[in-house]
Automatic annotation (TrEMBL):
<keyword id="KW-0677">Repeat</keyword>
<dbReference type="InterPro" id="IPR004182">
    <property type="entry name" value="GRAM"/>
</dbReference>
<dbReference type="Pfam" id="PF00566">
    <property type="entry name" value="RabGAP-TBC"/>
</dbReference>
<dbReference type="InterPro" id="IPR011993">
    <property type="entry name" value="PH-like_dom_sf"/>
</dbReference>
<protein>
    <recommendedName>
        <fullName>TBC1 domain family member 9B</fullName>
    </recommendedName>
</protein>
<dbReference type="GO" id="GO:0005096">
    <property type="term" value="F:GTPase activator activity"/>
</dbReference>
<feature type="domain" description="Rab-GAP TBC">
    <location>
        <begin position="504"/>
        <end position="691"/>
    </location>
</feature>
<dbReference type="InterPro" id="IPR036014">
    <property type="entry name" value="TCB1D9/TCB1D9B_PH-GRAM1"/>
</dbReference>
<dbReference type="InterPro" id="IPR011992">
    <property type="entry name" value="EF-hand-dom_pair"/>
</dbReference>
<dbReference type="GO" id="GO:0016020">
    <property type="term" value="C:membrane"/>
</dbReference>
<feature type="domain" description="EF-hand">
    <location>
        <begin position="882"/>
        <end position="910"/>
    </location>
</feature>
<keyword id="KW-0472">Membrane</keyword>
<dbReference type="GO" id="GO:0005509">
    <property type="term" value="F:calcium ion binding"/>
</dbReference>
<keyword id="KW-1133">Transmembrane helix</keyword>
<dbReference type="Pfam" id="PF02893">
    <property type="entry name" value="GRAM"/>
</dbReference>
<feature type="region of interest" description="Disordered">
    <location>
        <begin position="1038"/>
        <end position="1130"/>
    </location>
</feature>
<dbReference type="InterPro" id="IPR035969">
    <property type="entry name" value="Rab-GAP_TBC_sf"/>
</dbReference>
Length: 1223
């Protein structure tokens, strides 16, 4: 590349001059290329340690003048080819011009101006893409690509100087973190270390310090543990590594392929040596933290944050903290935890104004809302800019009437139009709903105006007793809190709020506060009508999720009166079905019904729906999917916390294996399925305010309370009984609802009266003992556990797939596991290196493990070329394409792992017959593409007359794919699979002359570069000419009247086998010559149109000149064959002089028109000629060289090892010698 001219004082230091003229020098870095000696080793080491640009560009061109001692670097290159191109341009375009100048200063000025002009011209086109990344960073990215052979699409995120510990010796070098790989390069005194690790292979990332290693980062994969240390900023490096590994895990989990988030803010001042990707990743991490802290919707993007103070009227103080501004919200978080949190939706804002500054209140800003609240911020550093940003966002905020004041919708009930307001702040029961003339199963979209608990509350004496008084006191406490701290979304959230939540939320306020604390209220008011539309669209639609929902509806809190009738069941059905249609990746998961039924008791349908969205998509991420990954991750955190807080019990629990059993049911249903309802609902109150942190601390408190009993347990069952009995007796003595019988009450022992545990005491204990858990720490632990869980699930998937395919395949378990790793890596590579992201869409998590990873033809060709034992040079991709079509039975242009290894096994395992059978099939439809032969239609119809079991199944599958699922069809298919119906060689259709010539071409290509290629060529030439002759003889029997052929076709697809002794060759005496009539419409047409022809024209292989090596194949006309019968029956190809290049270059049969072939060769293809598999096999067996070739064993593990090495070979163009360049 051209460089802006830079001054170089010592042109000879560490460089060798290779070319020179009066004005320019071409130099090579010492130690690069061959030789170099000790000096070269030292220079190479210096370049790596000091990160010299000479590592990536070991060639340069200097400008010089005769009398000046100063040199100017004008170009550099990573290869000799690149630098020679620049050198030749200078010689051709500048040398003559420069010789005209008299003054050396003018020469230098002219050269510098010219180079600057070239650079400007080049940059004009590249400016939009590259302006974000600074020059130093681009250079590092170039080094990374050159060093590790990465393609252009692989983006560098950042790079760091560090040491890699190999044994006890640190290797100083550079760590490159790319989107998909961790790479390290070191070169010290001739010893080179190159590491490339995919993020998807990382099983553990740890930052620790040991006696052996200083503070270091440990990267674990399934095979190795790597240690990196001596970072300038180890925390920044580790955080970035975590982010990249996390993105890779997300990709494995749900196909969220990494894309640059275009909506992320760009910094006002470009950061030196920071890539656009690094900036975006940092912004992404801040966004996630911001959304989690304030429970905001998933599409909210943080614009910026600034230090400030907030005036809190409830305690008359200015609280220091940070203000966060995003597209739709202004938020505040105090520095002291729990002092104050505030969320102001911009849809609620009416006025933003700058107040007068004073020494007491510098740079104040007041924000007023529709609910008549005003918030004062002060000590803002850049107030004017902040006000401008808020104004911009306010202008973009929809100016519709606030949904929080008067949201309303209609539905038709018994031809009457009823209007119901649904505002959680002021819920009024509707008389129309109390009487039930409503048909909830009709096509309308009805919605209850309130929670089901209010509709189904039985007359309880508790409301007038001491419990009722306690409930009213709670309500009064909350009303006072609302008066002091505000009500609704803009409420000041403080330690006082948490105290009130811990004491239990009153039943009348539960729905409202759940919506506020979870953030579901924000999503509901910004998506009016969304739920009603979803319900309408999902009505009457059926799929697997709706079937599961129907099955579980009556199991959802059957003990509660609200779900003992159609009203409650119908509401639950609509909410769950609507969510399944909103999020098909989750659809429906067990435990969602239990949680949703509780939400419906306190909220109307739409509110319950949005609470479910907040729960599944934000508060409990990945919990409710097919593999419950989120719950398994939090289970891992629970085990880790047990080890930290209850070490004595942890060991016992591990031995009993209890934690994994209990935690899933506790976490997935938020204790609703294991505790009495009145108690569990208090847990849900605290969960919506605190998040998963609260569930973990309560779980620890439960284990702590039962520690003594658990330590004495002998088995898992006993431990489960103890914990079950304890949870059954957690009571809520303040509940005003009548007690609901709990299903787990059967566990209670009848010997002693059970000891009751007050839920509020349990919550208080959990805060006292384990309240120091931090949400940030839990997120950090979630990342660590996610790596472990997803990798263990991937290992399980691998074992399941390998077990599923191992019975029918000849490979060992070890070979299958290695092949699975290669197959999966190829799929993942297409996700992040492919031109489009369609590959990611191909993976459906709901499918069985075997079907989840599937590759297309291009990926298969790459794998085939590196793993096949049948290398065919330039012909390999053609053969790979044919095998792919043969394996792709359902014609969806994708193959799964089983199909892939079936194809590979056909080439590696079995005897000569099995391998030849695979090769034979590759030259018949469907493997042979219609475009690859002239008589495509003829060949296809010929093939379908002799339908093999394989093709019949694929056609059936294709046909079935368009109709609704028929389970009986699948049962029949499975039954067929169970039958070990071995395909015999009799089932294989005959091969036409064209297809046979294609087979010969393939064999000639396969044998090139083989150690005994001449023997093989001689053998195949002998066999080919013999088979051509057999085909000629067989032609006499196939030339029958059309009527007979139709009769044969009606009777059976396979003709009787006739035998005939060949009068000229002993080799054909035992060959069975099967007859296959041609009954194609095109044949009939051609016979009718040309009755004067006695026979179809023939095509034979012949030696054109009869002398010289490598004589090409020629197609001879009828006239030539009439004169020389021996030429047609036994071709002169058998001299063994035929070369594979001749077939490839001269016999152009693939995809050409019949007329053009006739024009070139003076003949058309002989359509009556055919040959059977048995005849080919019998002929092949006569040649020892061919038998040995197909019988020899090839080690696929070695091929896989080589494939992994080759996969990332240096992509830079190889240097070519000076002599050839200058010549």
């Amino acid at each position: 590349m051209w460089l802006g001219p830079e001054e170089v004082l010592l042109a000879g230091a560490l460089w060798v001059t290779e070319r020179a003229n009066p004005f320019f020098l071409l130099q090579r870095r010492r130690g690069h290329g061959k030789g170099g000696g000790l000096t070269g080793l030292l220079v190479g080491t210096l370049d790596v340690v000091l990160d010299s640009s000479a590592r990536v560009a070991p060639y340069r061109i200097l400008h010089q003048t005769q009398d000046s001692q100063v040199y100017w670097a004008v170009a550099c290159g990573s290869s000799r080819k690149e630098i020679t191109k620049h050198w030749e341009w200078l010689e051709n375009n500048l040398l003559q011009t420069l010789s005209i100048f008299d003054n050396e200063e003018d020469i230098t000025t002219f050269v510098k101006g010219k180079i600057h002009g070239i650079i400007a011209e080049e940059n004009k086109n590249e400016q939009p893409q590259s302006e974000e990344d600074p020059g130093k960073f681009k250079e590092a990215e170039l080094k990374m690509r050159k060093q590790f052979g990465m393609p252009e699409v692989e983006k560098l995120v950042n790079y760091y100087s560090c040491s890699y510990w190999k044994g006890r010796v640190p290797r100083q070098g550079w760590l490159y973190l790319t989107v998909n790989h961790l790479c390290f390069y070191s070169f010290l005194l001739g010893k080179e270390v190159t590491l490339v690790i995919q993020w998807v292979d990382v099983t553990q990332l740890e930052k620790n310090a040991t006696l052996l290693f200083p503070e270091c980062i440990k990267v674990s994969t399934r095979d190795s543990e790597l240690y990196f240390s001596m970072f300038l900023n180890i925390n920044e490096t580790f955080k970035l590594m975590e982010q990249l590994a996390n993105i890779a895990m997300r990709q494995l989990l749900d196909n969220e392929s990494f894309l640059q988030d275009k909506s992320l803010p760009k910094p006002r001042r470009p950061l030196k040596n920071i890539s656009a990707l690094k900036r975006d990743l940092d912004a992404r991490a801040k966004n996630e933290c911001y959304r989690a802290t304030f429970r905001l919707p998933k599409d909210e993007c943080l614009d910026g944050h600034t230090d400030c103070t907030l005036w809190t009227p409830f305690n008359k103080m200015h609280i220091p903290g940070q203000m966060f501004v995003s597209n739709n919200y202004i938020c505040f978080a105090s520095r002291a935890e729990e002092a104050c949190h505030l969320i102001i939706p911009l849809r609620e804002v009416t006025i933003v104004e700058k107040a007068d500054s004073s020494s007491v209140l510098p740079s104040p800003l007041s924000i007023s809302t529709k609910s008549k609240m005003t918030f004062f911020f002060a000590n803002l550093k850049d107030r004017d800019f902040l006000v401008q940003r808020i104004s911009d966002f306010l202008q973009r905020t929809p100016s519709k009437k606030s949904c929080s004041i008067d949201r309303e919708w209609k539905w038709n009930v018994a031809d009457a139009s009823i209007l119901v307001t649904s505002h959680p702040l002021a819920v009024s029961p509707t008389s129309g709903l109390s009487h039930r003339p409503v048909s909830f199963c009709a096509g309308q979209v009805p919605t209850a105006s309130q929670g089901l608990l209010k509709l189904f509350r039985r007359n309880s004496e508790e409301l007038s007793g001491p419990k009722g008084a306690k409930e009213k006191m709670k309500e009064e406490s909350w009303n006072i809190h609302f008066f002091e701290y505000g009500r609704g979304m803009c409420m000041y959230r403080t330690a006082k709020t948490r105290e009130l939540v811990q004491k239990g939320i009153p039943e009348n306020l539960r729905g409202e506060l759940w919506l506020l604390f979870s953030g579901a209220w924000n999503e509901m008011v910004t998506h009016p009508g969304y739920y009603a539309d979803l319900v309408e669209k999902s009505m009457g639609r059926y799929n697997l999720a709706t079937e599961e929902i129907e099955r579980d509806l009556h199991r959802s809190m059957p003990e509660h009166p609200a779900f003992q009738n159609e009203l409650g069941i119908a509401a639950l059905r609509r909410v769950l079905t609507a969510y399944a249609f909103r999020n098909p990746t989750i659809g429906y998961c067990q435990a969602m019904n239990i949680v949703t039924s509780v939400l419906l008791l306190y909220c109307n349908e739409e509110e319950a729906f949005w609470l479910l969205v907040a729960l599944c998509e934000r508060m409990l991420p990945d919990y409710y999917n097919t593999r419950v990954v989120g719950a398994l991750v939090d289970q891992g955190i629970f085990e880790e916390l047990t080890r930290e807080y209850l070490p004595q019990l942890s060991e016992k629990m591990q031995d009993l294996g209890v934690i994994s059993t209990i935690s899933l049911s506790w976490f997935l249903t938020l204790f609703l399925s294991v505790m009495p309802f009145e108690s569990a609902v208090v847990i849900v109150d605290c969960f919506f305010y605190e998040g998963i942190k609260f569930i973990l601390q309560v779980s620890l408190a439960i284990l702590d309370a039962n520690m003594e009993k658990l330590l004495q347990c002998c088995d898992e069952g006993e431990a489960m009984t103890i914990l079950g009995r304890y949870l059954d007796n957690v009571v809520n003595r303040q509940s005003v609802s009548p007690p609901i019988p709990h299903l787990h009450a059967l566990l209670t022992s009848g010997d002693d009266p059970p000891l009751e545990i007050d839920i509020f005491e349990l919550i208080k204990t959990s805060y006292e003992k384990f309240g120091n858990l931090k949400a940030d720490d839990i997120e950090q632990m979630r990342f660590k556990q996610r790596l472990k869980v997803i990798q263990s699930l991937e290992d399980t998937a691998k074992k399941s797939v390998v077990r599923a395919v191992s019975g029918d395949i000849g490979f060992t378990m070890e070979e299958l596991e290695e092949l699975y790793v290669v197959f999966k890596a190829k799929y993942l590579m297409s996700c992040y290196w492919g031109n489009n992201r369609a590959a990611a869409a191909r993976r459906d998590q709901s499918l069985p493990y075997l079907e989840q990873y599937r590759i297309d033809m291009e990926q298969f060709k790459e794998l085939f070329s590196s793993l096949t034992p049948w290398a065919c040079g330039a012909h390999t991709p053609v053969l790979a394409g044919r095998l792919f079509r043969l394996l792709d039975e359902n014609r969806d242009s994708l193959i799964n792992f089983k199909e892939f290894v079936t194809g590979m096994s056909g080439m590696y395992h079995g005897d000569l017959t099995e391998k030849l059978k695979v090769l034979y099939k590759l030259h018949l439809p469907p493997a042979l593409n219609p475009e690859e032969t002239e008589s495509a239609l003829e060949a296809t119809s010929y093939f379908t007359e002799d339908v093999t079991t394989e093709v019949a199944c694929s056609c059936l599958a294709e046909e079935k794919g368009t109709s609704p699922q028929d389970y009986r069809y699948y049962l029949r298919m499975w039954a067929k699979e169970k039958e070990n119906k071995k395909e015999t060689i009799k089932d294989l259709p005959k091969m036409s002359q064209e297809q046979f010539i294609e087979l010969c071409k393939t064999l000639y290509n396969m044998f090139s570069e083989d150690p005994v290629e001449q023997e093989l060529y001689h053998a195949i030439a002998t066999v080919a000419s013999l088979l051509l002759r057999i085909g000629e003889v067989g032609k006499k029997f196939s030339n029958r009247p059309t009527r007979k052929s139709e009769d044969c076709k009606a009777n059976s697809g396979q003709d009787p086998v006739s035998e005939e002794e060949s009068p000229t060759s002993e080799q054909s005496q035992n060959s069975a010559v099967e007859q296959q009539p041609q009954a194609d419409h095109e044949d009939k047409a051609s016979v009718d149109a040309q009755p004067e022809k006695t026979q179809q024209e023939n095509q034979t292989l012949g030696d054109g000149s009869g002398e010289g090596q490598g004589s090409p194949l020629q197609l001879l006309s009828d006239d030539e064959t009439k004169d020389d019968m021996s030429m047609s029956s036994y071709s002169m190809v058998s001299t063994g002089s035929l070369q594979c290049e001749d077939i490839a270059d001269d016999t152009v049969l693939v995809g050409c028109e019949g007329s053009s072939a006739a024009a070139r060769y003076g003949s058309t293809i002989d359509t009556d000629w055919s040959i059977s598999f048995e005849q080919i096999l019998a002929s092949m067996l006569t040649e020892a060289a061919l038998v040995n070739y197909f019988e020899k064993k090839v080690n696929i593990l070695q091929k896989i090892k080589d494939q992994k090495k080759v996969e990332r070979q240096f992509s830079s163009s190889s240097d070519y010698e000076l002599s050839s360049a200058s010549g």
